[in-house]
Amino acid sequence: MNNKEENVRVVEVGSIIGTPSIRKAFGDSAIVKPSCGGKKGNWYCITCDCGFTNQFNKDTHISQGTHLLVWICPEHGLETQ
Ligand SMILES: [Zn+2]
Ligand SMILES: [Zn+2]
User: Fold this and answer.
1) pTM of the model
2) How far, in Å, from the CA of 28 to the mean position of ligand 2?
């Protein structure tokens, strides 16, 4: 995770994410877990309720403004990274 942008944070372990897309995909009590260290997954912006299919999309998205991100692991669901 590149943290050079002060306005971009990664959600903390134990947080419950309640945005529409996350609720649809993971249910009402989607709790963020510690990273499993896996390389597969996607970043998702909780602030804007949008996901990114690649690093370029994510970097463009967070280049301006404030964003809270979560890592979506295909095996475990929501994770920090
Ligand atoms: Zn965003
Ligand atoms: Zn995982």
Assistant:
1) 0.87
2) 19
